[in-house]
Give the backbone structure.
Amino acid sequence: MRILVLGGYGFIGAEIVRALLSDGSEVIGLGRNAWLGARLLPAARWIGANMAKLTAPEDWRPHLRGVDAVVNAAGALQDGARDDLAAVHDKAIRAAIAASESAGVGRFVQISAPGAEAGASTAFLRTKAAGDAALRASKLDWVILKPGLVIGRNAYGGTALLRMLAAFPAVSPLVHGESRIQTVAVDDVVDAVRRALRGEIASGGYDLVEPAGHGLRALVAALRAWLGLAPVKTLALPAWCAAPVAFAADFAGLLGWRSALRSTAMRVMSEGVAGDPEPWRRATGRSLKSLEETFAAMPATAQDRAFARASLALPIMICALALFWIVSGAIGLIDLGQASAHLAGHADALTAQAVVAAGSLLDMAIGGSLLIRRTAKPAALISIAVAAFYLAVGTVIAPELWLDPLGVYVKVFPAMALGLAVALMIGER
């Protein structure tokens, strides 16, 4: 069977691709970066395309030749610099459905979400509902799967948010601690996709959730225990405390960062993630794994603990490094005369001020670039090179500062190390 998996190297999509390859299927993955897909999952064939641009049936026809089934595991949590929910969840899916009908695709499996309804409170759920509705109205043989909070070795969105909260030091700060969450193991989601592709379940929509739910407080505590971290007290915060955090995360989204703290994730967690497990149980004769069973089958490792802590640390590191460069550049511009005095004897006053002004503007450009997702990694690497250059020049024109009691030069090394750490930690999910 030749299967096209949309979002093939994403959180859920990558697991689906691996499973289908192990079943002996011919898998074509579609993602924004075909090179990344081929690097992560080389056994699949990859198509590099931005689904937000594939909004007409003719855009899809070249990708559907000879395809027997389509699995849509693509999705985005919130609109931002890199994501357009209406385009990815609705327009592109409508176009893919129309093209699939004319191409003779046998089955279309859609990964949606519990609560995906036209009147939902978030654009994520409303646009998912629009794509679901288009599939229901189609002539295709279709199945819509709606996983709850997906627990897997990898983490993204709500799962990443909960791991971040679980790894918080000393105390567990929570808003809406009583919200009800139902989880599902990622391998259960993959098994559901396999069953759907084999025609073992009838066309329809199915919530993929464990039989019982958990309060958010209990879920975070369970995640912390799974990570092997000592239990801490919960700090119950009022609902308004989430607003400034979500606002900052949403602003970061405009700069290209897909923070787990954005307002959509916060709202979903406040409203809960719940579904009805009965239709799936009736269709298959089995219930999905509980959270306890999921954790028992997936023991945490040092890498899981490192990821949870890094999710907390990376935004702080990026902001601290950006602030360092922006402020240092601004100080040079504010007191241009004093800053250029160090060049006395090496250049005339006007030239010295021009050099300092250029360096200050470069510093501020590095700091600003660190705050933009697309330029953050190269900016971090450039910051190391520029800092090393400043040290070399400083050693020539003012070597005595190496012995300055305030450690003027010595303090540059932690900034260089921070730049290296940021460059190494930034990457695709």
